[in-house]
Amino acid sequence: MLEIRGVSKSFGGLKALDCVDLAVGPAEISGLIGPNGAGKSSLVNVISGLLAPDGGDVRLEGRVVSGQGPERVARAGIGRTFQNLRLFPALTVLQNIEVAAQTARECRPDRAVAMDLQAEIAALGLAGAEQLDAGTLSYGDQRRVEILRALALCPDFLLLDEPAAGMNEAESAMLATAIRSIRDRHGVGLIVIDHDLHFIMGLCERIAVLDMGRKIAEGTAQEVRHDPKVIEVYLGAPA
Amino acid sequence: MTRLLALDGWRRSVIGGLIAALPVVGVCVLVLLFAPAYVERLAYAGLVAIVVVAGLQVFTGNALIVNFGHTVWVALGAYFVAILTTPPAMKALIIPDAPWGLATLQLHPLPAVVIALFAVLALATLTGLVISRVSGIGADILTLCLQIIVHSVLIHWTDLFKGNTAFFGVPQFMTLPWALLIVTVVLVLARLFRDSPWGVQLRASSENLLAARSMGVNVARRRLAAWVLGALISATAGMMYVFFIGTISAKSFYFSYVFLTIAMLILGGMRTVSGVVVGTAIIQIGIELIRMLENGPVMLGLQLPQMFGLSGLVLGVVIVLCMVLRPSGVMGTREFDDLLRMWLARRPGRNGDRP
Question: What is the model's pTM?
Answer without folding.
Answer: 0.89
